[in-house]
């Protein structure tokens, strides 16, 4: 969400919008009092519609990361609940085989909207950190040079932050299967493909199957 | 006698973490503007309550014999809108490294803001009603006075900004003081437009 008062220029633009908004209402009310009220209602609805529509249609900002050192292959992995999934581990192993690979695992700290807006992220970060620690342990056991960090609750924002600092060569996003994944419902993978000029691999991790497999083979 | 060094343990609270989307500064600005809107909102609620419930005298608003100084307030509106433009000029000037433009913009904004406040004081003296006369008078003075208090705070901020500008404190890279002060000044301008339209025109 873009704060309209983030910069002086934005606030100055808002002054002119306010003048236009009220000028139309005054003109309407000079003709007829009820027309003024109707103009107010219509303009208020249009303003609300524009505000929420703009949020949805905000054009993606292409991120072109700088190249990593020539002898190093950087893989950015974004996953949350599926971060320890066997499919993800095997995908990363496969992608880093025979290369000087460096893996950064970003685990978004998923939070409720209310807690997010009051900056109460401690619990979300604690949960994300425990999942991340477990996953990093598995990766290190598999011989992968992996490091990890907690990201923003919005996975796209978390990727954007990591792209800026880590400068990956490719991106791996892990989700639950379709129908159970909130990220897929929100089009996170498609948005990432649209926004970042990186090869994006989508790994589906079915934790239920993994649990069943574990129980079949104790 | 032996001595040994204890490993240094960091003191104080843990390092701050926050979302990159909502930094504390932005959240602070949101909360500040939200609280200001609520403050003005409470005054507007009283005004509209009075207007709807009492409905003037025989449907006439403001209740006779009171007259609102619409034209003086219109001139004041033009002064304040112009001051927003000069404030924007000051901000864009320092971003381009034009120090003289920033100083001129701030001085002009300060002068225009002072003119607004002085005009309002003169307008108050010439009005033929006072705060205790009727509920209309009370809400009129309440709303315009609340806004006047904000203009006074804005002028104080502008004065500090101007003094700092003449002491060479701002640069194209570091002009946070101009940016934040400018946002506040535009907010005061927006609130005046709302006050002018609702109290003087409608």
Helix and strand pattern of chain A: HHEHEHHEHEHHEH
Point out poorly predicted stretches of chain A.
Answer: 211-218
- Detail the poorly predicted runs of chain B: 1-10
Structural class of chain B: mainly alpha
Average pLDDT of chain A, to the nearest integer? 81
**What portion of the residues of chain A fall into strands of 2 or more residues?**
5-15%
**What is the N-to-C order of secondary-structure elements of chain B (H for helix, E for strand)?**
HHHHH
SS summary, helix count of chain A: 9
By helix and strand content of chain A, what is the structural category? alpha/beta
Backbone shape of chain B: elongated
- First CA to last CA of chain A: what distance? 48 Å
List the helices and strands and how they pair.
The complex is a heterodimer of chains A (218) and B (202).
Chain A: H1 8-31, H2 33-57, E1 73-78, H3 86-96, E2 101-108, H4 113-117, H5 122-141, E3 146-151, H6 155-166, E4 170-175, H7 182-185, H8 188-195, E5 200-204, H9 207-216
Parallel strand pairs in A: 1-2, 1-4, 2-3, 4-5
Helix pairs in contact in A: 1-2
Chain B: H1 24-54, H2 70-95, H3 99-126, H4 135-166, H5 176-201
Helix pairs in contact in B: 1-4, 2-3, 2-5, 3-4, 4-5
Describe this structure in a few short sentences.
The complex is a heterodimer of chains A (218) and B (202). Chain A has 218 residues and is an alpha/beta fold.
